[in-house]
Amino acid sequence: MIIHSDNNIFADDSSTDSKSINETVNGSHHLTIKGYSLAKGMGPGKYLSSDTFSVGGFDWAVYFYPDGKNIEDSSMYVSVFIALASEGTDVRALFELTLLDQSGKGKHKVHSHFDRALESGPYTLKYRGSMWGYKRFFRRTSLEMSDYLKDDCLAMHCTVGVVRTRVEGPKHYTVSVPPSDMGKNLKYLLESEVGCDITFHVGDEAFKAHKLILAARSPVFRAQFFGLIGDPNKEKVELADIEPSIFKVMLQFIYSDNLPDLHEITGSTSMSTSTIMLQHLLAAADRYGLERLKQLCEARLCEVVGADTVATTLSLADQHHCSQLKAICLKFAATNLGVVMQSEGFGHLEESCPTLLSELLETIASVDEKPSLMSSKKRSGSSIFGLDLAADGAAAESVNPNVRRVRRRM
């Protein structure tokens, strides 16, 4: 049975469909009972069992009762049942029992549930040991005189069809796709110098590159080579305001879209050396419009903020409009003000960016505000004089003497 469900109320291109498919998983088992006459007299309710067999994920067995299943039948009938032999709840299935004609005439005795599926539907077996079959499968006297019994043997064929329901949606065919290697291929062009058409002279070093790739990645290079006043035929460019090592890292990023290992490039494991390179690289990224490189540098600098470098990083963040980096530097400096003020970078900050000192004071105030409020709340529970003291500006300022030092420098 197949049920179609369509989500196409408006019949547009976004409609989808699925199928609920009910079907049977069929399996068969052949049972031979040899020495039928020796099984007689077992008594009603006693049975011979087949080996278990699996169909549809469940185990099954055929039970043959030589003297019938019911005592009231007085051994007048043989009984045959198919039983659920494994754990299961509400297992729905169709069944067929066939007693084989051993004369070769093909007149088998068939009891089929499959033929009646439209009338009554599948049979439900509630639990392990539940059975489907016939208490009066065959009158015993008739059976013993028939062609179904030959050489004291009976042959039976059992079929089980376990009902399964599945939902079938649109088929999605997948093909394994390797990760992009564009950066690797472009980096090979840079390193091999294949097709290079521009040479940058930076200090004592020369770097060859491709104008089209540079123009695709940087709006500054695009304007320089292909803009209204650009020169697409230019073969050499002199750069005097950038270090060769910084330009080399920037080129590698342009071609690979990855930030190289700075420790490997500098040949040093010093965090300070890497921080200085990141600061210069951020400035270069801002100059050439490489926003992703700028953000990568900003993220790395946030991770390595320290007392020795926070002042210079703060000045850099303000100059190149790195708002997140700036906020983190201000908070770090505010909470570690005494140590930060002893650094060389703080002196440079005073001279070059006096407006940042005002922002630093505001950050200090916001950092100190919560502890002050908390202490005020604690004092208000026991003394009103504590509130007056906290409200006094001079008294509050005396808690952080570094604030007065910053104000004097302003």
Automatic annotation (TrEMBL):
InterPro entries hit by this protein: BACK_BPM_SPOP, BPM1-6, BPM_C, BTB/POZ_dom, MATH/TRAF_dom, SKP1/BTB/POZ_sf, TRAF-like
Residue stretches in coiled coil: none
Family matches, as Gene3D superfamilies: 1.25.40.420, Apoptosis, Tumor Necrosis Factor Receptor Associated Protein 2, Chain A, Potassium Channel Kv1.1, Chain A
CDD domains: BACK_AtBPM-like (cd14736), BTB_POZ_BPM_plant (cd18280), MATH (cd00121)
Involved pathway(s): Protein modification; protein ubiquitination
Matching PROSITE patterns: BTB, MATH
Function: May act as a substrate-specific adapter of an E3 ubiquitin-protein ligase complex (CUL3-RBX1-BTB) which mediates the ubiquitination and subsequent proteasomal degradation of target proteins.
Family: Belongs to the Tdpoz family.
Protein name according to UniProt: BTB/POZ and MATH domain-containing protein 3
Organism: Cinchona calisaya
Record lineage: Eukaryota, Viridiplantae, Streptophyta, Embryophyta, Tracheophyta
